[in-house]
Amino acid sequence: MLNFYVTPRRVWALLCTALLCLQASSIVIAQRQSAIWYFGSGAGLDFRAGAPTPLLDGAMHAFEGCATMSDDEGKLLFYTDGINVWNRQHRPMPNGTGLFGNGSSAQAAVAVPSPTNPMQFYVFTNDCNARSNGLRYSVVDMSREAGLGDIVQKNVALHAPVSEMVTAVRHQNKQAYWVLAHEYGNNSFRAYLIDANGVSSTPVISKVGTVHREETAGTSAIGCMKLSPDGKKLAVASTVVGAEVYDFNAATGQVSNPIKINGIRSGYGVEFSPSASLLYITTSSNVQLMQVNLKAGDAAAIAASAVEIAKIGQDVATPYVGGSLQLGPDGKLYVARPESQHLGVVQAPNLLGAACNYLDRGINLGGRKSMCGLPVFIQSFFQYDGQLKFSNSCFGEEAQFSLAVAPWEPQPTSILWNFGDPASGAANTSTLPSPKHRFSAPGTYTVKLTRTFVNTLEEYTIQFVIKPLPEVNLGPDRSLCPGTGTVLDATLPNANYRWSNGSTQATLTVTQPGTYWVEVTVDGCTARDEIIIGQFPAPPLELGPDRSLCAGETLVLNATAPGVTYRWQDGSTNPTFTVTQAGRYEVTLTNAQGCVSTDAVEILYKPSPVVNLGPDRVLCAGEPLVLGAAQTGATYRWQDGSTGATFSPTVSGTFWQEVTINGCTSRDEVNVLFNPLPVVNLGRDTTLCDGQTLSLNAARANATYRWQDGSTGSSFLVSGPGTYWVDVTNEFNCTTRDEIRVHYLTPPAIELGRDTTLCFGDTLTIGQVLPIVTYLWQDGSTQPTLDVTQPGTYRVTASLQHCSQTDVITVRFKDCIGGLFIPNIITPNGDGQNDTFFILGLLRADSGLNEDKWDLTIFDRWGKRIHHTPEYRNNWAAEGLTEGVYYYHLRHNQDGRAYRGWVEVVR
Fold it and tell me: Considering only 448-457, 624-633, 639-648, which range has the smallest mean pLDDT?
């Protein structure tokens, strides 16, 4: 940006008193480059509205020194802790890391604008505790990264070692700047001039004041340094110096006339009041805020004028260093309180003693923390000396005008700007404090500001040039053939360039379609042009990959496309080409726009595999046959889809195999006939009983036979144990063999004995136990023995597998002792066994009669009488009754003997 200044012509009718000027209630922020602050642990302040408001979007965590830079409208450009540079989006610039400052340096950085290029800034960085990186600078170019900025030069060395302090002020000519640092180990100040030639490599050195070194202290480089806003005074506060104030010559860069302030030990922060009449100092020894009266009189009076204003940060842990001091755009002085969510504020820093009104918790940081440092600014930003400022001098931009006045001055009753641009019509004048104006044409203009007070009139005049924009013309939009390029030329004398891809050359070679733009800057003014590069379509062409064919194959290469001409490798011009032999084949297509496509393919030929399944065959069913053989690197496919190297047919048919090696396939086939085998079935292996025979029959038509003993009949009679087989050969000379194993068993010997007679009540056990023999008795039981208790005929069949033998015995009973035997179960199922309720001894066995008469009554389980007879004859069979338990009462009719019990009926 270009800033022009004039000294105003003031016409005073009435002078205001000093008290009245100091009590002005309205504040004008004239230097908006200092309107945004970022500092501490994510803390920030915004002064653009006058009173500061907290900012909570900061990405920086700076323990001590830092710097912030905004534009003339107060919009954030960047901020830094001396190591990293963040853009306005709070992201590190692409090359904005690795600066050689230090987060533990009291004044780690200060940013200074280029006097000739409004898009460039110098960031001076300072190492901590006099370390080897010392004082350096880097260059920020805000035209890079679409206006977000980038570092284009980094860590240029100036001097080492230096103390942890750096400050800056405008040159007396209002165009250049001074940056001051102090060598470590001596008493030399170094003043670097920043002008149209950049940063001077030869500083102005002033050897004056206290030596910055203390052999016994490890922190003797710690402290801050400030120039007064008017550039006439310099102050230093440090652990080794305490505090000193000097005169500074803003025209020559010389430092002179040191005054050491009495009673200040371990100084840290330092700052002038806006009027430069008072000096404020913080200490790290007992965390004081001190005030020095620079208008107290001679040097001795000034040195003795220091008074304590307040203790700082009594509500937070005591830091091991003090807090920085910094003037704000609102004319107040701000005090860092380490590890606190507040800043201290000197409300009226131009007033002596307690009247300065220090508030220790003066402003809340919205939950973010202050640390030891506050941003370092160019001190001229806080000078209110009636400077008329102008920015944006390129045609087409809105020019910004402002007048820097002190906050304590009274406000005018009216303001009138005249921009000297009558062609702009009603926009040629404005009554705003800081107006904008878009000039109607390039040229030289005279702008006049008139401020009217109650009894005063002030007039300011400035003359400047609105520069024309560069004439940039990339030509008309155009299209390219694929694979070709074009050069876009924006060359102008003395110009800088920025293309859409970041290039800074005068020309740009493009090979791809798209929208391309260039910004050309000449004498600080930038114009832009863009061009659309299209692309003609290339003829579509794809011959496919290189490939190998099998012997005898042909291939048609097809390059057909609309609206093109063809040329093959042999000069032919057809859209297709037939390949019959190995070689390289190429075609070139050209369309109406002259765009060319070329493609080529390499064709190889491979031998086909040899396949031989042999001659046709005639076999007997079941006879093994293996077709095919394995070949190296081959795959196979048979008529049934199987993929083995061989195939074994089991039925008649035509069988074929395809063998593929390296993508080439050959095929062979063979006919196989399987004649049927004769059907022979001698039956399953069998077991015969002793004395049995078995006839084996293998007879069938048109067959011959051979048995195991050499006989050739169609049948064979088996009469003994052994293995018997026969081979049967049919008319196709196909033979089938079958065999059978024959075993013989001897039936088990069983003997029940002779018929016998038993006494009533006796039991006879018949039968015998033989191994692996099964039994079946006449009553269905299968036990080896049977207990006989009733008269009857008893039969058992003993079986060894299917060989059996049966024996029978008849058992009779007689009354041997005249007693009774009453059964407890009957089975009236009609099988002749236990069918009635038979009481032994009740009747004479021979006639069924007895001279005794017995009375029998039968009851069911509920006591109901269901049967009664006065002369029972062993004939009750539970007719019509269900299975279950029934109760009987048997009584002798003469002597009264009686029997009671139960009997179960089972059918």
Answer: 448-457
